[in-house]
C-alpha cells in the first residue's frame, strides 16, 4: 500500500510539473514520466497486459508523436500567443466546472470491495481476452468503429486541400 | 544523328516486372556479390612492413652520387637549384683544399647542400639539369615527420654512403 | 523463492549484462573487420594479434576524448539522451530465454531472468522507448541536423513498429501465448516458427533493421545529408553510448528473432544430445546453439549493411506504409484462414 501512495504522489508531482514547465518539450517529457508512473500502478494491480499496452501505446507511440510535433513547431516564449482576458476567464470557468463535477462524483463514490484479491489473475492476457471477446464484444467492436471513423476523418482533413486545387 | 564511333548504346527502360518490383531477388543477388568478395584475397599492402614495387621511372628521395673512386660528383654549379620550379634546393659552394682530393672530384664542391622536401615536387628537372650526373631521384618515399625543420634534408641524408663501407 | 534462486538470478542478470556489453564491444570490431573483408581489405590489425584489442583501444580513446556540451544545449537533456539510449537497449535482454532449465548443484533453475506473461509486448515497449534517447539527444543538441535526425528517427520508428506488431500477431495466432519461454518451448527440435511463418519473419527482419537504425534504414544518422544525424554534437563517451546502444540493440533484436522464429536454443536432435550429456551440460550446449544463431544474425546485419545502399526518405515511408503493413495484414488473414480451415481439413484427410 505504501508503494501505491509513493507512486501516486509521483504521478501527481509529475503532472503538476507538466502544466508548470516553461518549455513545452520539458512538459512532454514530464508527461512521459507521468505515464510511466501509471504503468507502475497497473503492474501493482497485477494488470500486466494493461501496463504493457499503456507503455507501448502511450509512452512509445502517442507521446513520441507529441514530441515530434512540438519539435517541429518550435514553441518558445517569444512565439507564445498573447491570450486575452476573456480566454483566461473562460479557461478558469471551464476548469472550475470540471473540478465541481469531479468533487460531485467523488462524493458519490463508496469504497468498493477489493476485486483483485478474489482473482489475482484478472489482469492477465488470457482472462482479459476472454472477457473482451465474450462479455464485452459489442462495446469492443463499437469502439473500433469509433477509431475507424476518426481515421477516415483524419484522411479527409488531410486530403481536403489537394481536391480544391 | 548517326554516331561515328559506333560506341553508343541505346538503353531501353522497360517497366519492371513483378519480381523486379519485389526487390527481393535483386537484394539476394547483391548479397551474393558481396559474399563473393568476402572470400576474395585482400588487396591491401601493409605499408611499412610490405612495400609495393616501384616502377622503373619512379622518382623518390634524392641522392647525391659518388664516382667510381668514392668521390662526390657534385661541383656546386647551381644548375639544379636554377632549374628547380619549386625552389627547393639551396647550396653553398666551397673550394677544395689540399689533401681533400679523395673526397671531391672537382675543384669546387658543395659545402652545404639542402633540399626542402616540403617544397620539392619530385619533377626530376634537377636530375636532368645536372651536368655531372651527381643527383638522382632514385630513393624511397620521403618518410613522415613531426616538424617542418626536419624535412630540410642536408648532405648527411642526401649523399650516398661511401663505397668502401 | 529460495536464497539460491535469488543469488542465481542476480548472477544471471550480471552475466547477461556483461555478455551484452562484450558482444556490443566486439560487434564494433566485427563490423570493421567484416566490412574490410567485404571490400577486399584487411581491417584493423595493429592492436594485438589480428587487432583483437581494437575495441579496448577504442573504448579508452572514447573515455579520454574531450567532453563537449554546446553552449546553447540544455545540458541535463543532453546528458540524459545517451543514458536513456543505452538504458533502454540493455533492458530488453531481461525476458529472453537463453536456455532450457538447467540443474546446478541439485537446483533446477531457468536460464531466463524473468518469464513475464507478456514477454513479447515488454520487448516492444522497451524498443519503442529506445527512440526517446535519440529524440531527446537530438533536440537537446540545439543543432538543426541533430533535430532533423531526431525527427527522422521518431517517424521511422513509429511507422515500422506498426508492421512489426502486425507481423508478430500472425505468429501469436499460431503460438497462442505471449510468453517467450513458452514460444521457444513449442519450437522443440526442428519445429521452428520460421517454417510456418516465412513471410512474417521476412517482415519482422525488415522492421528490425528499421528499428535498430541499421543500413539501409540508417536515415537518422546518415552522414551524407545530416553530418552525423542526431549525434552530430556528441563527443567522448556520450557518443560512445549512442554507438554502443546501436550494437546492443542489434544483439537484442537478433536474440528476439532467434527466439521467435528460429527456435531459440532448440536444434534438431537435441533430445539425443540432452540424454547423453546430462542435465547440466546439455542445456549449456543449447545456450551455445542460441548464441551461434545470434551471431549469424549479427553477421547478416553487417552483411546487409555493406550490400544495400540507404533508402531515400520517401522510399522508406512508402515501404513502411504501402508495402509492409498491407503484407502484414495479408499474412494475418492467410494465417487465420490456414489455421482455422485448411489445417483441420488436412488433418481430417489423413485420418
Description:
The complex is a heterotrimer of chains A (165), B (165) and C (351). In chain A, 81% of the residues lie in helices and 0% in strands. Chain A contains 7 helices and no strands. Chain A is globular. Chain A folds into 2 domains: 122 residues, Four Helix Bundle (Hemerythrin (Met), subunit A), CATH 1.20.120; 42 residues. Chain B starts with 17 loop residues before the first helix and ends in a 7-residue tail after the last helix. The mean pLDDT of chain B is 86. Chain C is mainly alpha-helical. In chain C, helix 10 packs across helix 11. Chain C has one domain. Chains A and C meet through helix 2 and helix 3 of A and helix 4 and helix 5 of C.
Give a short summary of the structure.
Chain B is α+β, with helices and mostly antiparallel strands. Chain B contains five helices and five strands; from the N terminus they run H-H-E-H-E-E-H-E-E-H.
Helical fraction of chain C:
over 70%
Q: DSSP helix count of chain C?
A: 12
Hey, which two chains have the biggest interface? A-C, 20 and 25 residues
Q: Give the topology string of chain C: H per helix, E per strand.
A: HHHEEHHHHHHHHH
- Unreliable segments of chain C (pLDDT under 50, ≥5 consecutive)? none
Strand content of chain B: 5-15%
Strand order of the largest sheet of chain C: 1-2
Indicate the overall shape of chain B: elongated
Number of domains of chain C: 1
Strand order of the largest sheet of chain B: 2-3-5
- Overall residue-averaged pLDDT value of chain B: 86
List keywords for this structure.
heterotrimer; A: 165 residues; mainly alpha; Four Helix Bundle (Hemerythrin (Met), subunit A); globular; B: 165 residues; alpha+beta; Alpha-Beta Plaits; 5 strands; 13% strand
Protein topology:
The complex is a heterotrimer of chains A (165), B (165) and C (351).
Chain A: H1 2-20, H2 24-44, H3 48-73, H4 85-108, H5 115-118, H6 125-135, H7 137-164
Chain B: H1 18-21, H2 24-38, E1 63-64, H3 79-83, E2 89-95, E3 108-116, H4 125-129, E4 135-136, E5 152-153, H5 155-158
Antiparallel strand pairs in B: 1-4, 2-3, 3-5
Chain C: H1 3-38, H2 54-64, H3 75-91, E1 99-104, E2 107-111, H4 119-140, H5 144-175, H6 180-186, H7 193-196, H8 198-211, H9 223-226, H10 236-260, H11 270-305, H12 313-350
Helix pairs in contact in C: 1-10, 1-11, 2-10, 3-4, 3-10, 4-5, 5-8, 5-12, 8-10, 8-12, 10-11
